[in-house]
Structures are given as structure tokens and as C-alpha cells.
Design a protein that fits this description.
There is one protein chain. This protein is α/β, with parallel strands linked by helices. It has two domains: 185 residues, Rossmann fold (3-Layer(aba) Sandwich); 133 residues, 3-Layer(aba) Sandwich (Rossmann fold), CATH 3.40.50. Helices cover 47% and strands 15% of the residues. The strands form two sheets. It has a four-stranded parallel β-sheet, with helices on both faces. It has a four-stranded parallel β-sheet with strand order 6-5-7-8, sandwiched between helices. Strand 3, helix 5 and strand 4 form a beta-alpha-beta unit. The radius of gyration is 23 Å and the shape is globular. The protein starts with 15 loop residues before the first strand and ends in a 5-residue tail after the last helix. The mean pLDDT is 94.
Length: 365
């Protein structure tokens, strides 16, 4: 284990509250080498692949990391922008906008950082930034509305691993989910209404990232959270049961995953005579490979080739004002009692007195 990290410290140093936004992550570039590094980190997480390492390691290093990176890189190239990875660019805009909103609404000081569970900027780097800023109270907001051990719990693992090296731990709070938060649900419903104002409504499919079915049977609440999110949004849109459905995308490997599968259901709908469909992905806080390539491109082709006529992907909430407002309010709900979000931190005069007392007691700074 690494020795505990120490920072230079003075007793008149101002303290801050910190907010750490996290998301899954992205390769540094749409190349096979960059994707291989990313996948090696992602698929080595035993929260993501719950297979004994002795069985999984030969498959990962002997097969997957030899074949998958080139195919995945080609998909990333389809969605890469002048800003780079869409997920990272959108997440950075979310970070900046939330920091600005918190600065306007609260006395502070409040520091907002961004860390990715896999790839860059890493969670460890983001925590180092917060530590250097003097953060003593830390709220972690994983941008996964629906809880899963493979996402939120894995984020906690990475945070705990880094905090094990800190000498002075911050007060820590973590938002485990927000799948039924009103403002988040309202923002989703409004995004659908906005799309329907442009073109007629189609049958609405809520597509969530899939998980192995065994995760549900082991007690993971993700499936239930997804169903509740979809039901509450459908209720806000006054949809009847036959006007919407839930499905799961992005399955990997041969094990049974949560069903119905998005691609299968879309093909079945088209073959049954459904001509128009809208797809919403409420589990993604920012557009990424799984929405921009898998849903907007691949599954469009699946639906149209099976006989459908009109296919529309409704974008993730991204940095839309309603989404930013929902996330800011969520942060405020979970930081009640922290002075930076209420009465403000200590004053310069109070810090000076604190240092004088410490020096009188033998402190060095």
C-alpha cells in the first residue's frame, strides 16, 4: 500500500465543499490502441464482469482485446467530433455549467470536478484536484440515474481506493441514484414533447443499457429503477400501455441479459406493422457511443430494414437547461447543512484567529 499522502497545510487555509461529477468514461482517441487501453481497464473491473478472474483473464486478453478494439474504434470514428469524444465534451460542459450555477446560488466556496471511472480524466486525478483546493466536504454525483453495482458501486470502489491514500479524509456523501427525481423526470418528458412538436409522435421505446439477468437475480435494483423511470415519464406524457415499452441494449457475451432486447423489439414492432418509433435513453446523462452509434445508427437500420418507416432518436438530456437545473437541485438536496451551501464558510478574520491559536499551541504553519 502506498504511504499516506500529505499536503502542505496552514491553519488559515480556507476550506471548500467539493462536488465530484463522474461518468463511465471514453477512449482518448478513436483508434484501436486507445480503445484497447480503455477496454482493458473497463473489462478488468470485477463489478462489470462478475466472472472468476481465472476464467475471464484468458478470454479478455487472449480474445477480446485482440479483436474488439479495431471494430469499436471504427464505431467511435463515426461519432467523434471536433471537440473529441462526445461524452467527455458534454460532461465538461455539464461541469462548467453546474459550477457556475452553484456559484450564483450559494456563498461557497464550492469546487466542482469531473472524473471518469475509466480513462481520462480519472477519478483519482479529479480527487487530487479537489484535495489540492482544500475540500473538506465532498459530494459525489455519479451521472447514472438508475443504480447498478456495475456503475455506481464501481464508482465508489474507485473513490475509496484513492481515499485510502489520503491522510485527511473529507466528509463524504454519495448520491446512489436519482431515477425518480421529479425534475429529472420532467426534463425527460419535456424532451419528448419537444420532439413531438417537430414531427408526429411514434410509439415510444425507453432503451436502457443492459445487464446480465443474473445481476437482477442477485439483488441489483437496476431493472426496477429503469421500469419506474419509464413508467413515471409515460405517466407525465399521458401514454397508454400500448404506446410505450422498455427494452435493454448493449448486451455483451453469451449470457442471458435483461429483456426484451432493444434491437429485437424494434424488429418485432416493424414486422407487426408499427411504422413510426421514437427511442429515448433515460439512463444516459450524456450522449455517447451507445446512444449516438448503437441507437441512432445501428438500431435505426434494424427498424427500417424490418419494415418500419420513421425512426427518431431523442437525444440525451446532455447540457440542456432543464437537465442542469435538475442536477443542481439534486446537489442542493444532498448538501443540506453544509455551510458552503447555506451560511457560507469561515471568514478571513476567523481563519487568522484560528492560525494564531494554532501557532500558540506549537503548530508550524
Amino acid at each position: 500500500m502506498k504511504p499516506l499522502a500529505s499536503l502542505s497545510f496552514t491553519h488559515d487555509q480556507p476550506t471548500r465543499a467539493g462536488v465530484l461529477l463522474t461518468n463511465l468514461g471514453t477512449p482518448d482517441a478513436p483508434t484501436a490502441d486507445a480503445v484497447r487501453r480503455y477496454l482493458a481497464e473497463f473489462l478488468a473491473d470485477n463489478r462489470v464482469v462478475e466472472i472468476p478472474r481465472a476464467l475471464w483473464w484468458p478470454i479478455l486478453h487472449g480474445v477480446i482485446l485482440r479483436t474488439r478494439p479495431t471494430r469499436s474504434a471504427q464505431k467511435y470514428q463515426k461519432i467523434w467530433t471536433a471537440e473529441g469524444s462526445p461524452l467527455l465534451a458534454i460532461s465538461q460542459r455539464q461541469q462548467a455549467a453546474i459550477a457556475a450555477r452553484l456559484a450564483e446560488r450559494h456563498p461557497g466556496p464550492i469546487q466542482v470536478a469531473l472524473g471518469m471511472r475509466y480513462g481520462n480524466p480519472s477519478i483519482a486525478a479529479a480527487l487530487g484536484e479537489l484535495q489540492a483546493a482544500g475540500v473538506r466536504r465532498l459530494l459525489v454525483l455519479p451521472l447514472y440515474p438508475q443504480y447498478s453495482a456495475a456503475t455506481t458501486a464501481s464508482t465508489f470502489d474507485a473513490i475509496a481506493a484513492e481515499l485510502r491514500t489520503w491522510r485527511w479524509l473529507p466528509e463524504l456523501r454519495l448520491i446512489a441514484h436519482y431515477h425518480d427525481q421529479d425534475r429529472y423526470l420532467n426534463a425527460l418528458a419535456d424532451s419528448v414533447r419537444t420532439a413531438w412538436q417537430v414531427e408526429p409522435a411514434g410509439r415510444l421505446l425507453f432503451s436502457f443499457h443492459g445487464l446480465p439477468k443474473r445481476n437482477l437475480l442477485a439483488g441489483d435494483p437496476y431493472y426496477c429503477h429503469c421500469q419506474k423511470t419509464a413508467r413515471l415519464v409515460a405517466k407525465r406524457l399521458d401514454l397508454s400501455p400500448e404506446q410505450w415499452a422498455v427494452a435493454f441494449q448493449s448486451r455483451f457475451g453469451r449470457a442471458e441479459w435483461l429483456q426484451p432486447y432493444t434491437s429485437t423489439l424494434l424488429a418485432d414492432w416493424a414486422k407487426a406493422g408499427v411504422k413510426r418509433v421514437d427511442v429515448l435513453c433515460p439512463g444516459f446523462a450524456a450522449d455517447c457511443l451507445e446512444t449516438l452509434e448503437e441507437i441512432a445508427i445501428e438500431n435505426r437500420q434494424v427498424f427500417l430494414e424490418a419494415g418500419g418507416e420513421h425512426y427518431r432518436y431523442i437525444p440525451a438530456l446532455n447540457d440542456a437547461p432543464a437537465h442542469l437545473h435538475a442536477l443542481t437541485e439534486l446537489i442542493e438536496q444532498h448538501t443540506v447543512g453544509w455551510p458552503e451551501f447555506g451560511s457560507g464558510g469561515d471568514t478571513e478574520a476567523e481563519r487568522a484567529k484560528r492560525r494564531q491559536r494554532a501557532l500558540a499551541l506549537g503548530a508550524s504553519a
